[in-house]
UniProtKB/TrEMBL annotation:
<keyword id="KW-0813">Transport</keyword>
<protein>
    <submittedName>
        <fullName>AI-2E family transporter</fullName>
    </submittedName>
</protein>
<keyword id="KW-0472">Membrane</keyword>
<feature type="transmembrane region" description="Helical">
    <location>
        <begin position="31"/>
        <end position="48"/>
    </location>
</feature>
<keyword id="KW-0812">Transmembrane</keyword>
<dbReference type="InterPro" id="IPR002549">
    <property type="entry name" value="AI-2E-like"/>
</dbReference>
<feature type="transmembrane region" description="Helical">
    <location>
        <begin position="60"/>
        <end position="79"/>
    </location>
</feature>
<keyword id="KW-1003">Cell membrane</keyword>
<feature type="transmembrane region" description="Helical">
    <location>
        <begin position="246"/>
        <end position="265"/>
    </location>
</feature>
<comment type="similarity">
    <text>Belongs to the autoinducer-2 exporter (AI-2E) (TC 2.A.86) family.</text>
</comment>
<feature type="transmembrane region" description="Helical">
    <location>
        <begin position="272"/>
        <end position="290"/>
    </location>
</feature>
<dbReference type="Pfam" id="PF01594">
    <property type="entry name" value="AI-2E_transport"/>
</dbReference>
<feature type="transmembrane region" description="Helical">
    <location>
        <begin position="188"/>
        <end position="210"/>
    </location>
</feature>
<keyword id="KW-1133">Transmembrane helix</keyword>
<feature type="transmembrane region" description="Helical">
    <location>
        <begin position="99"/>
        <end position="120"/>
    </location>
</feature>
<feature type="transmembrane region" description="Helical">
    <location>
        <begin position="296"/>
        <end position="319"/>
    </location>
</feature>
<feature type="transmembrane region" description="Helical">
    <location>
        <begin position="354"/>
        <end position="374"/>
    </location>
</feature>
């Protein structure tokens, strides 16, 4: 009997040891669980990659709807504060305010088409016709800076870059590039049709966003279980705050940058002041890089005019950067969406590589939205697993409590 009992005890101990080993090394191991989760995610991505035909209708829908929705969303964040203010302060119906805003926008667009667009068109055509001469002057100036024998390789690379850019920007070359990039007449008609659809449907989407957009979060969370509604609604609120701050701030800064460059170039007597100011405003939508890219045509034009004009262009650039960095950006953007410059550059590189020019423009707000979602989930995960994330003060309290218990 004693021999049988000892055998049973040894078997039970061996079973406990094997169970505890499996629990400690597999079930209770964060590394093993993390690797399993990563493996499952990669398997899902692999399977979905083999089933692209499932997402082709969704891709078509997104390509059709994306542009008018983005345009309507941008104008929504610009106009919605005015609509909310008139409704709360003067108790004016939202539909009446929206109609009045649409009438004003239509008048501004008509004025721009009648007076501003012809000036921009004339300056653009003249600037493109004269650009090869400006670029040749800029090339000679840059190559002269690298004329030393030890910099011959760099000089050859700059010369090759110049030849490619110069050939592309010669009169007629840039215009003929577009038809070559399109495969057939059908693709041209398709793109023109999509632009027309975007222009026509964007105002309709904007109208209903302004009229009923404040009820959209409640409608979306109504499909979720009750215990998730409040949290998801807070996520929507944070995303809306991030997007509104970014869009209003960036567009406000871009408008003032365009205005400052236009006035500065007019004061120093630089040609195409209005066109260069508008280019600077649009490029300023690209964080950290836009203003410097906008200086390339201005520097080329100033260098072609005279060395003294180049100095005046650089002075305008320094004054604009000082006012923008010390006064305009802090005043308009405030402390919202303060990302590290390296983070922004990384986001711009990745989004630009994946989505092109559109990715460069929407990369930072898209990153802000993803950051809100990930931060919210991470905060929930920390609350659900308090033992995994112990702060220094809490850890000291736990150690003291253990010492007292002992």
């Amino acid at each position: 009997m004693e021999g049988k009992d000892s055998k049973v005890t040894k078997k039970s101990e061996a079973g406990k040891w094997s169970a505890s080993w499996f629990f400690n090394w597999i079930v209770n191991s964060r590394l093993a669980i993390s690797l399993l989760v990563i493996l499952l995610v990669l398997l899902v991505i692999l399977v979905l990659g083999k089933m692209k035909w499932i997402f082709s209708p969704l891709t078509i829908i997104l390509n059709t709807v994306a542009m008018p929705v983005i345009l309507a969303g941008v104008f929504y964040y610009l106009i919605n504060p005015l609509v909310d203010w008139t409704e709360k302060k003067y108790h004016v119906r939202r539909s009446l305010t929206i109609t009045g805003v649409f009438v004003i926008l239509a008048l501004l667009i008509a004025w721009g088409i009648g007076s501003l667009i012809p000036v921009i068109q004339t300056q653009t055509q003249e600037f493109l016709n004269n650009w090869p001469e400006y670029w040749d002057k800029l090339e000679k100036f840059i190559l002269g800076l690298f004329s030393a024998d030890g910099l011959k390789d760099l000089q050859n690379k700059l010369a090759s870059i110049n030849s490619e850019v110069g050939d592309f920007l010669k009169p007629g070359k840039a215009i003929s590039f577009l038809p070559k990039s399109l495969n057939s007449l059908g693709s041209i008609i398709s793109r023109v049709t999509s632009v027309i659809i975007s222009v026509v449907t964007a105002p309709l989407i904007l109208f209903y966003l302004l009229k009923d957009g404040h009820d959209l979060p409640d409608y979306l969370v109504s499909f979720l279980p009750n215990r998730y509604r409040l949290g998801v609604k807070d996520v929507f609120k944070s995303m809306n705050t991030q997007l509104s701050n970014y869009i209003r701030g960036q567009l406000g800064v871009a408008f003032l940058v365009a205005l400052m460059f236009w006035i500065g170039y007019m004061i120093i007597g630089l040609k195409y002041a209005l066109l260069l100011g508008i280019i600077a405003g649009f490029l300023n939508l690209i964080p950290y890089l836009g203003s410097f890219l906008a200086m390339v045509p201005a520097v080329a034009l100033g260098l072609f005019t005279s060395p003294f004009m180049l100095v005046k262009v650089l002075i305008v650039f320094v004054i604009e950067q000082t006012l923008e960095g010390r006064l305009i950006s802090p005043l308009i953007l405030g402390n919202s969406m303060k990302f590290h410059p390296l983070t922004v550059l990384f986001v711009l590189l990745v989004s630009g590589k994946i989505f092109g020019l559109l990715g460069v423009i929407i990369g930072v707000p898209g990153y802000a939205v993803l950051k809100v979602i990930v931060s919210t989930y991470f905060d929930w995960f920390k609350r659900s697993h308090p033992n995994l994330y112990v702060t220094g003060q809490t850890e000291n309290k736990i150690i003291i409590q253990k010492d007292d218990d002992q």
